[in-house]
Amino acid sequence: MNIFIIGTGNVAWSLIPALKESGHNIVGVYGRTAQNVTKIAENFRIAPVFELSKITPYADAYFILTADSGIMPMASALKTQKIVIHTSGTTDINVLKRYFKNCGVIYPIQTFSKSVKVDLKNTPLLVEYSDEITAQKILYIAHSLSQDVREMTSAQRRCLHLSAVFACNFTNHIIATSKMLMNENEVDFSLLEPLIKETIRKALTNDPVLCQSGPAVRRDTGILNLHLEMLNSHPTLKKIYSFVSDSIVEFSEKYKNGLDNIEQSNFQ
Q: What tens-digit pLDDT sequence spans the chain (268 residues)?
């Protein structure tokens, strides 16, 4: 399938090679910044387009890979009767339906960085489409990229994206915070690697609430207060530590109450 790419960010840097490896032909790439367009075009040997009016009309599908705030402006400016697809977790398909008869969503549940190649074959792709005819082509593209393709509404996708922010972005930020604290005290960050890996492994293979450990779930106020005192020079981190610790306590209490209710109902 002939595909045109709109956007030069992290998703484009992973999606373009995945599409090419899946047998699709990338007929061009457009972006707002000439330097970024030139760089990605040269890297993947595809045609650069620097003006919106010069976007080729000969593609079978157009991927809008801009930031969420740029999807509607781009959709309103793009003139085509072909399929238009965005990859956002939060933008409703109706944003595209306002301008295009044939449109859809292919949302990858993955984190993207320009410098890291992502294996989309094992990445879940969530699809949504405007009609059944368009669905055939959207599903064709999605299945060519991944072995895990599922249909999902815009509302469900927004919920998933919110959950992904907690699971991915917030988790990475906390890890980055721990690295900063260790660097400040000249402690080797690699010492945490086995702990981080085991934490993720346990959370994925068990109920993460049951796997919770640490001073908050133990209600160890002595350690909690000590840690808060150690963070006096980092007031923002101190707030995060206190807030997350309170949330851990709240989660454990709710979970314990739920288990108690289940046990009581079993004996009634």
A: 999 999 999 999 999 999 999 999 999 999 999 999 999 999 999 999 999 999 988 999 999 999 999 999 999 999 999 999 999 999 999 999 999 999 999 999 999 988 888 889 999 999 999 999 999 999 999 999 999 999 999 999 999 999 999 999 999 999 999 999 999 999 999 999 999 999 999 999 998 988 899 999 999 999 999 999 999 999 999 999 999 999 999 988 887 765 444 333 333 3
SS3 143: helix
What's the CA angle centered on 152, arms 151 and 156, to 5 degrees?
165
Q: CA 166, 197, 194 angle in degrees (round to 5)?
A: 135
**Would the pTM count as exceeding 0.90?**
no
Distances (CA, A) of 108 to 67, 117, 126, 172: 14, 14, 6, 18
Residue 67 dihedral angles phi and psi, to the nearest 5°: -65, 160
- Asked if 227 and 233 touch (Cβ cutoff 8 Å), the reply is no
In whole angstroms, what is the distance from residue 3 CA to residue 119 CA? Answer: 20
C-alpha distance across the termini of the chain, in Å:
62
87's enclosing H/E stretch is none
Distance (Å, rounded) from C-alpha 152 to C-alpha 129?
10
Q: Where are the alpha helices (DSSP H) in 5-129?
A: 10-21, 34-44, 68-77, 94-97
